[in-house]
């Protein structure tokens, strides 16, 4: 029997029951502010979108009569990297100190290498600062906003790519990639041997791999050149597999159909093979610990060297095997002073990404960079392991034949996704242990309604 304070005799020591508390408000209702417009989040999404679209925007301006020089392009890219860093530290709470420290090491290392070489090339610094900058940006992003941006960009890429194949003259008149690359990259008119205003590699001498029965050229869409569009499809494949359960059915369909369209447009041979290999291999690789992604480039290098040792890599020319052959030859010829980054860069390394990275950054900075990103946990769940193994395969295959993977146009998005997973891995660890500050993370968006067909 419960005795109230009104009826209890004097002197009784009665522990009275507490008044019932009002039920707690649901999380979504308690955080109504999450529904409000967040200008910082919007600014980050705009910046991330510009990393993909800025080349097309500049080419459009250049085609309309305002010449865009290399300095403008370099300044825009530097602004995007600086903006990514700025947004990365814009919110209150924990700073992404690991990535700011990595940026400091890369900056100081490049400064010392520039002094040793007697020349300053800002591009070398920009190649690697993009990585910590966009990881910092990714730690502040909302996943749903990132998926929405990716879907919009994929629709644009597919639409402009198909339009380019069907109406190449109209596309060339709008963007004029030939004039843009002559003005902004120092290309000569003679290098555009195909005789069109499209990019120099818009026509492959041995013809197309996909849609070979047509007379279509190799399309570039909003990237203006085919190789980066192929790299884009590889990144999108990694993203789709990693974030499959976070997307709605219609978003998956748009990304997959758009990827097939972009792949047919660019006719990328490496992209075609990689886009097939990744869905077949990642379901098995994600069963391994994420830190084992460290060994992907070393394992690939050992395999290529073994195949070469037994005489099965003799092909020359503009094929994957031929370019890998050339990349290996250049790697074998690397001297210690080149590996330490003490000599001016050999222009031949532009088609040999590993040699380019090692000679521009030194093998010491290259190892520091790779060990940091591959040994940092972005979650030991299936999502984090899929993303880190997919990224490692993507980077390794691209670096084996070119340095295009270092372009901000694709890797900005790639490393932003890495940073997003890194932040959520930290959040999960803090919730599990009850320690650590989560104030640096963006507020979660309210749960979306699910339809029966999902």
The number of helical elements comes to 17
Residue fraction in strands:
under 5%
Instruction: Compute the average pLDDT.
Output: 86
User: What distance separates the N and C termini?
Assistant: 52 Å
Biggest sheet statistics: none
Question: Could you explain how this protein is built, in words?
Answer:
This protein has about 450 residues and is an all-alpha fold. The protein has one domain (about 40-430). The protein has helices at about 25-30, 40-65, 70-90, 95-115, 120-140, 145-165, 170-175, 175-185, 225-240, 250-265, 270-285, 295-310, 320-330, 335-340, 355-375, 380-400, 410-435. Helix 5 runs parallel beside helix 17, helix 9 packs parallel to helix 11 (about 270-285) and helix 11 (about 270-285) runs antiparallel to helix 16.
SSE topology:
Layout (H helix, E strand, L loop, with lengths): L26 H4 L8 H25 L6 H19 L8 H21 L4 H17 L4 H24 L1 H8 L1 H9 L40 H17 L6 H18 L2 H17 L10 H14 L10 H13 L3 H4 L13 H23 L6 H18 L8 H26 L21
Helix pairs in contact: 2-3, 2-6, 2-8, 2-17, 3-5, 4-5, 4-15, 5-17, 6-7, 6-10, 9-10, 9-11, 9-16, 9-17, 11-16, 16-17
